[in-house]
Write a structure and sequence with these properties.
3 helices; elongated
């Protein structure tokens, strides 16, 4: 099989990774599943920082551990793919399909995920600090232990039935977000904005909600056993009266 010379040049540069030449994709070389597979077969990591991959078909490509910082992956499909350890910090993933994908231990720091589909995705131990998830679909996703501290672009995100056990969510803005039947036990929600959020039947066992803004939030049927609500703003909060009457 004839191998593209530019691929060989890329592979040769990768052999001296310390030189960082491997960060540069060869000029004129098309980014395809086949070309990526060849590079991975040689045992090298894919380096495409800042690349414009918008709309490119990368489904089933081997992207494990890829370096895609600041890349544009808007509209791409990664459904069901193994993306463990991928560096997507500051990347654009607007409307990207990541349904059922494995992003465990990936770096999504300051990534833009507006309207992205992350339903049933594995985001365990992912760094999501500064990420924008506004109107993203995270239904049933595994976000156990994730870091979203101080996130300001998380309004109206759908986290219905998501697993957020022991997640760090303090001071984040989840205004109008849906946490219906979500698992938030032992989560740190100190100072979080949950104004108008849907928390019906959510598991908040021993969660930290100190100073949280829960005005107009719906906590109907939620498990509040051991939850810390000291200093929380509960004006017009729905469902707490039922909890009190049960006690």
């Amino acid at each position: 099989m004839l191998i593209n010379k530019s691929i060989l040049s890329y592979i040769g540069a990768c052999e001296n990774e310390a030189s960082r030449f491997c960060e540069l994709w060869p000029d004129g070389l098309e980014v395809t599943v086949e070309n990526l597979a060849l590079i991975r077969k040689r045992g090298f990591r894919v380096w495409l920082p800042g690349a414009n991959l918008c709309g490119i078909n990368l489904w089933k490509a081997d992207m494990r551990g890829a370096y895609l910082r600041c890349a544009d992956l808007s509209g791409c499909t990664f459904a069901g793919m193994d993306l463990c350890g991928v560096d997507l910090s500051n990347a654009s993933l607007c409307g990207t399909n990541l349904e059922r994908s494995d992003l465990s231990e990936a770096n999504l720091y300051a990534a833009y995920l507006g309207r992205a589909n992350l339903e049933d995705a594995n985001l365990s131990l992912v760094n999501l600090r500064g990420a924008s998830l506004e109107r993203a679909n995270l239904r049933g996703a595994n976000l156990s232990g994730v870091n979203l501290m101080g996130g300001d672009f998380l309004s109206r995100v759908d986290l219905c039935e998501a697993n957020l056990e022991r997640a760090s969510l303090s001071a984040a803005n989840f205004r109008g977000a849906s946490f219906e039947r979500a698992n938030l036990c032992f989560a740190n929600l100190e100072g979080v904005n949950l104004i108008g959020a849907d928390l019906r039947k959510a598991n908040l066992y021993k969660a930290n909600l100190r100073g949280a803004k829960l005005s107009r939030a719906d906590l109907s049927g939620a498990d509040l056993d051991g939850v810390d609500l000291e200093g929380a703003f509960l004006c017009n909060c729905v469902g707490l009266e039922n909890q009190e009457s049960e006690e």
